[in-house]
UniProtKB/TrEMBL annotation:
Residues 1-22 form the signal peptide. It comes from Sulfitobacter undariae. The lineage of its organism: Bacteria, Pseudomonadati, Pseudomonadota, Alphaproteobacteria, Rhodobacterales. The keyword Signal applies. Pfam families: LolA (PF03548). InterPro entries: LolA/LolB/LppX, OM_lipoprot_carrier_LolA-like. It comes from the Bacteria. Keywords: Lipoprotein, Signal. This is Outer membrane lipoprotein-sorting protein.
Length: 199
C-alpha cells in the first residue's frame, strides 16, 4: 500500500499581498481550533506521491490518535496511537511498518497542546483569497519534514493538509465535512489489534 507519509493539498488563486495579510486567520485562532478539536470523523481523499488517489474514512481523537481506513480496492489501514504510527497492508506478507509519532509531521496537529506561536514552528502563514495555509514543523527536529494545513474561515475549519516527509515524499489529504464531537471508541486506535470498524 502506498503510505501517506505526508498529507494535504492546497492552493487557489493568489491575490494582492496587502489583502492577504488582512484576511488570513491568526495563528492563535488556529491553535485554539485545533486544541478544541477533540474528536472528529469524516471522509477523506488522499493524493499519493505517485499521483494515485485513495479514499476512506478518518477518525481523530486528540491528543495523539488518528485512524485512516481505506476504501476498496485499497485494503490499507494507518493508525496513530500510543505514540506510534503503524501502517498495515493486508495484501502484503510483510509485517506492518512502524514509526514513532514524534518523527512524523502529524505529531504537530495531534499534540496535547498545539501552539503555532512557538518559535520556529511556523515557516509559512499565507492567505490566497480562499483559505489560510500554515506550514509548520517540529522546531526541534525540522529534518522530519513539515505539514501544510489549509483552513477556511473566518472561524477556522481544517480542509486539507500536505505532509512533506523527511525522505522527500509528499502526501495530500483532502477532508470532507468533519463530524466533530461525539464518542469514538479508544479501541479504534489500538496499534496492536487494528481490526476494521463497522461503518
Amino acid at each position: 500500500m502506498r503510505f501517506l507519509k505526508t498529507i494535504m493539498l492546497g492552493a487557489a488563486l493568489s491575490i494582492a499581498a496587502s489583502t492577504a495579510m488582512a484576511d488570513k486567520i491568526p495563528l492563535g485562532n488556529i491553535s485554539n481550533y485545533l486544541n478544541e478539536l477533540t474528536t472528529a470523523k469524516g471522509d477523506f481523499t488522499q493524493i499519493n506521491s505517485d499521483g494515485t488517489i485513495s479514499t476512506g474514512t478518518i477518525y481523530i481523537k486528540r491528543p495523539g490518535r488518528v485512524r485512516f481506513e481505506y476504501n476498496a480496492p485499497d485494503t490499507g489501514l494507518v493508525i496513530a496511537g500510543s505514540n506510534t504510527v503503524v501502517i498495515y497492508d493486508t495484501k502484503s506478507n510483510q509485517p506492518p511498518e512502524t514509526y514513532p509519532l514524534s518523527r512524523t509531521p502529524l505529531s504537530i496537529i495531534l499534540a496535547r497542546k498545539v501552539n503555532l506561536g512557538q518559535a520556529k514552528m511556523v515557516t509559512g502563514h499565507a492567505y490566497d483569497g480562499t483559505a489560510t495555509t500554515v506550514t509548520a514543523q517540529d522546531p526541534e527536529n525540522p529534518q522530519y519534514g513539515n505539514i501544510q494545513m489549509k483552513f477556511t474561515g473566518p472561524t477556522p475549519e481544517l480542509r486539507q493538509w500536505i505532509i512533506n516527509d523527511g525522505n522527500g515524499g509528499q502526501t495530500t489529504v483532502v477532508l470532507g465535512e468533519l463530524q466533530k464531537g461525539g464518542n469514538i471508541p479508544n479501541n479504534l486506535f489500538n496499534v496492536g489489534t487494528p481490526g476494521r470498524n463497522n461503518r
